[in-house]
Amino acid sequence: MKTSNKHLTKPSSKNLLKSAPGVVLILALLLVMFLADIYMASAATKSDDHQHQEDEHTEESGSHGHDHGEGEKHEGKHEDEEHGHESKQEGDDGHAESGGHGHEDEEGTSQIEDTMAQTVGIVTERSGEQTLHQTILTYGRLTTAPEQTSHVRARFSGVVTSVQVTIGETVAAGDLLAEVEANESLRKYSIRAPIAGMIVQRHANSGEVTGDQILFSISSFDNLWAELRIFPSQRSSVAIGQEVFLSIGEQKVKTKIEHLLPAGDEQPYLIARAKLSNDLSMLSPGSMAEGRIVIDEFNVDVAVKIDALQILGGRTGVFVKHGNKYEFIPLVVGRKDDSYAEVISGLKPDTEYVTRNSYLIKADIEKSEAEHEH
Predict the structure, then answer these.
(1) Which residues contact 99 (CB under 8 A, 6 or more apart)?
(2) Residues spanned by the domain of 229
(3) Does residue 79 surpass a pLDDT of 70?
């Protein structure tokens, strides 16, 4: 079989030139794609290296952060503990300084400003020498002396023509009380006050006929007498001239026994009479009287008032003033009378201490201590 030469002929150079640009284009595209693959691979490698470095840095940072966090936590805890300790100390100090109503850490003390102390009536005095009195207690009443009362009558029977005074008025000796016209002479005469005092009774009016009756009673209250009962057990301790301290209500009077009399009516006691002044008319006859008769006295170097003594924590003492602070000072006390107690130890002379309303300071301290316990 014969092959045709037409089909076996070599292509011409012209046809090759026409197809060359397409080949070049294809080769260029393949090169671009190859370079692109290389770039992508390189970029991926760099990304992996960068990610690996970041992971390592993160781990190192995490490890460092953990160590640093624990260090800071430990240091913070230490600082918190120190701060808490300091805060506790400051809190304790603050409590000592402001422990409610001016209290201090010292036991048995209270701080009160002078203005507040004056408002609530806290009074102080200074300790020192005193004369103590041993006394016995008696009771009785106030009365007037017989010579201090006058009952006025008319000298001659007659008719009362005028009356110049009435009950409750005060008269002087010689003042005109009334006028009477005598029955026999029909002459008027005056009735005058024989003593100075107060008209306590009046039984005379104009137009009345006088007889032997009392027209006026006048009493003087410038001086009164305390009549005290002295029972047999006290008799040997009581004598004329002894001092006696009288208490009549709120009034306090110092006087002396001037008489010792039998009571009369077969009563088993004596009457001790003591005179007292009543210039201000603050006392009245019939008032009850309490008498403390002095049977012995003695001097002591240091004494405090009985009203100043308080019991705090089972100990007897007084509150001593240091500026605005009041401190409880326990005392050893000895002999006492109705007003003072001898100080054997615990207090020096000329020490300022609370004599009135010291119970307010005691109550304040006890309240503070109770709150502190809770």
Answers:
(1) 105, 368, 372
(2) 134-144+222-297
(3) no
